[in-house]
Amino acid sequence: MGQIIILEETTKHPITLMGSRAGICWGSDVSDREKNYKRGLECLVSGHGRVMEYVNVEMVLDGYSARVIREWYTHISGSPTRLQASTRYVDYQQFAYVIPPAIAHNEEARSRYEQTMQTISKTCRYLEESCGIKREDAALLLPLGMATKIVDRRNLRSLVDMSRQRMCSRAYHEYREMFGDICGKLAEWSEEWAYLVEHFFMPKCEALGYCPEKRSCGRMPQKVR
Q1: Where are the beta strands (DSSP E) in the chain?
Q2: How far apart, in whole angstroms, are the C-alpha atoms of residue 73 and residue 143?
Q3: Smallest Cα–Cα separation from 144: which of 60, 71, 91?
Q4: Are 147 and 63 in contact (CB under 8 A)?
Q5: CA within 13 Å, CB half, 4
Q6: What pLDDT tens digit does each residue of the chain (225 aa) get?
Q7: Which sequence positions are flagged as catalytic?
């Protein structure tokens, strides 16, 4: 489906960086990388989440639906910022789109779905080329299933918090898949990132030891209400 591109501005050694920043405020020796790494782990295990905000993550999210990107925007902690592909300047007369698994596996539903997308594409072209309608106005026809692209910047704390909601079995299926793609790419970025993804990116039930949801998937025992 989509793809994640981790940009070079992303912190390469996040645990070491966190330990260094904490060490400055603790009056510790921050010239020793090994000590910084151990101090960073200590902060994480102790729940000192503020140091996670020093870890920078910049990436391109490409080929995911406009719908799931709208949900991505709801996670605004830690002063993230992003740019999205323009519907004013980018030519969407032949736009890519996402097909949900439930529709993709139903031949009749998929046929009707794709016909509708093609009709929207042809209508956008007609409005622009035959009616002289500006692209920014014709673009209002574009559906939430249209594939889009964003450049995103946020910090580790924001991503860990996001994992609690979006790795949950009850999260929207495309978001779960997209977040899994992000975890995979970050784990490849460095050994420290691989450690963080394995030990700190998890649904809230794993972090809490129980499920706080009213409608649980059954993965963990529910909280007694």
Answers
A1: 3-6, 56-65, 81-84, 147-155
A2: 17
A3: 71
A4: yes
A5: 21
A6: 799 999 999 999 999 999 999 999 999 999 999 999 999 999 999 999 999 999 999 999 999 999 999 999 888 776 778 889 988 888 888 899 999 999 999 999 999 999 999 999 999 999 999 999 999 999 999 999 999 999 999 999 999 999 999 999 999 999 999 999 999 999 999 999 999 999 999 999 999 999 998 888 888 998 776
A7: 166
- Report helix, strand or coil for 4: strand
> What 3-state class would DSSP assign to 123?
helix
The pair phi, psi for residue 79, each rounded to 5°, is 50, 55
Paired strand residues for 82: 152
Quote the tokens at residue 39.
Answer: 């101090």
Rounded CA separation 167/169 (Å): 6
Its pTM stands at 0.90
* Whole-number Å distance between alpha carbons of 40 and 38: 5
Closest CA to 153 of 199, 202, 204, 84: 84
